[in-house]
């Protein structure tokens, strides 16, 4: 597991459905998965959940860097180190949700990750 660059409170579920605009400001809602952790883990999760392309990731990090973490190359490398862990978290989330509700959509979402990790899904 990567050693944290900088600890902060993480939301761990940043996507358009969890953003509200109020009085000209964005607010995050649904803090169900919040935890303390590495800022690069939050960024890796956001990039993966929202399917940011490498170019969009780079642009985001360039805008984030002046306000979040000074060493852009180190931050970008740390985000890359976290991506396999985020994939595993997503896979586990899909598996738990499948076990809870038996909705086949969760198996479809996790199918590529099952293959990437050389696992078979529990049908």
Automatic annotation (TrEMBL):
The keyword Methyltransferase appears for this protein: no
Protein name: Thiamine kinase
The keyword ATP-binding appears for this protein: no
Leading EC class: transferase
Enzyme Commission designation: 2.7.1.89
Transmembrane regions: none
Positions of the Aminoglycoside phosphotransferase domain: 5-70
Keywords: Kinase, Transferase
InterPro entries, A to Z: Aminoglycoside_PTrfase (IPR002575), Kinase-like_dom_sf (IPR011009)
GO molecular function, one term: thiamine kinase activity
